[in-house]
Amino acid sequence: QDAAxxxxxxxxxxxxxxxxxxxxxxxxxxxxxxxxxxLSTLRANGLVAVPTRGGYRIQPSDGAATQPTxxxxxxxxxxxxxxxxxxxxxIIAAEALETLRPLVSKQGSITxxxxxxxxxxxxxxxxxxxxxxxxxxxxxxxxxSTIINLKNxxxxxxxxxxxxxxxxxxxxxxxxxxxVVPIDSSNSIALRGDPGAVAKFASxxxxxxxxxxxxxxxxxxxxxxxxxxxxLPVIEQLLGQGGTSGAAVVSDGEAGSASPAPSATTSGxxxxxxxxxxxTRLEGTNALIVAANxxxxxxxxxxxxQLDTRPEQVVVEAIIVEISxxxxxxxxxxxxxxxxxxxFAVTNFSNASPNIxxxxxxxxxxxxxxxxxxxxxxxxxxxxxxxxxxGLRQNAADAVLGARGGFAxxxxxLGGNAVLGAIINAVQRDTDSNILSTPSLTVNNNxxxxxxxxxEIPVSTGEALSNNFDNAFRTIKRQNxxxxxxxxxxxxxxxxxxxxxxxxxxxxxxxxxDDFSELIINKREINxxxxxxxxxxxxxxxxxxxxxxxxxxxxxxxxxxxIIGELFKSRGRSRVKTNLMVFIRPTxxxxxxxxxxxxxxxxxYVRGRQLLRNPDQEPSLDALVRDYLGTVPPSIAPRPGDQIxxxxxxxxxxxxxxxxxxxxxxxxxxxx
Length: 672
Hints:
This protein is an alpha+beta fold. It folds into 6 domains: 2-138, Ribosomal Protein S8, Chain: A, domain 1, CATH 3.30.1370; 144-211, 2-Layer Sandwich (Ribosomal Protein S8, Chain: A, domain 1), CATH 3.30.1370; 217-309, Ribosomal Protein S8, Chain: A, domain 1 (2-Layer Sandwich); 333-428, no CATH class; 429-588, no CATH class; 591-667, no CATH class. Helices cover 22% and strands 38% of the residues. The chain contains 12 helices and 27 strands. Strand 2 (47-52) and strand 3 (55-60) form a beta hairpin. The chain is elongated and about 165 Å long. The two termini are 82 Å apart. It comes from hydrothermal vent metagenome. Belongs to the bacterial secretin family. GSP D subfamily.
């Protein structure tokens, strides 16, 4: 009560605070001095005044660090509990924490903020000011830095050796005395750390560089992604060999007995400046062997490192949509009249079926037959036939069997031996088609890829006779018919893909005519170069075709007579509408994770189609991958809202939703 009356502040007593304290002074105190003495008295008795809204809360000092306190020690009484943020410039927060922890009072706390490289201290204001002074003394950058330019050895090679020495003997958590960073652009290394260690490592780097000057080195560069055969001419040109001297191809089977390649004398146009340089490749191992001085070795090694990188891949998906409608109608009348005393007359139209002449020939075939009687010892056989009659009957049968639509006819006698006949034919054809094709392929960046779904058919290219003109032969070539996609992608820096494309859709339309058996091939082809963003769909091209044709076959003069003239005509009408569009979509696969995700989506689509057909059975695709390939089917994580269909024999944990592992019975002893 006395402290509240003198200082004008409100104090809230914790239930754990008990007892009274008497303070005797030798002189009058000001209000601020009285408050400082009050806080010192609380501190001496294990209590602390924690600022709250509108006053102070008096409580035991245990646990005071977790209560809201004033932030910042400046202007605060020495015995007031405050929170201070100490920002570090040079030393690491975790290291400073270990140094300063013993200086914090038992009631306070200190934590390290590694992201901001700072310390958060909760303690009495006078102790925090003491900690801040100490931090100013130790938070100084005493590390030394230097750059060593290398003339002979490679920066990465020297850096790797020095880093191994720097970490040798230091356990986990022990700070490395020096940091080594290779700089490839200038073939130098940067050292930073303890001044003594930096000086020692700099001396070792110079010593290693000077020793690398002596002699010619031979190194084997095994390529992971690049092709040694394609890379060899590039290195030859850089070495000034021009691809003629100093290069050899060593056969893997004869490597032990092959004679050494001749020394190459550089032409002065390459990177080699002293001593001969030889580069060769080992056939069958995709490796390059380089014999050169250290400077050339460094440059060649850096070149190979930059070129031998995992290529990005592009999945090119095409969507080919063709919607067509065709309508054809034909109507016509054919007439035939003839006899011994009546002139022969006939109306014959090319679009009419069956042909009335063929039908009439079949009816008259019997007049060309001859009767042959054969008598033997046991029997007498009489046959009636002829080659002409058989041919007429065959033509009539083919005409009737090959007729389209509906037809009707009649024949009547005009008296004497005159005959009148007619055939009426009518046909209508309606055809609708909706073709959707989606060819796709995955190809490495800057490489050509192609895919074909179709057939290889024989196509005649010519005919010739033998030297004696008694044997004709025909030359044949094979031609692809179907859906073909050919693409060369190039990924640019803007996350776009430049593609050189050839898209072709071809099909067999049939023979040219009944008399000419050569095939007609429908072909739709696009050759273009486009640039498309990753994952975007672009229309390559298309065709909107509406073809209508009307034909009239008639007898001159007779076909022009009103009304009656329709009996001497054959009409035909056809209309074909075609809508064709080709779309393309590239997807960049930059790393194996992208490839796995894409494969999982495509695998999941096919797997889902199988599940729709047989929901109660395991998809045959999963069984094939598991049993035949012996691996786990690819999958992707389900998205929110997806319905998960578990295969028979699998369960999901209620908490995590993860599918539990199930064992598959081995198909043979020893299988897992």
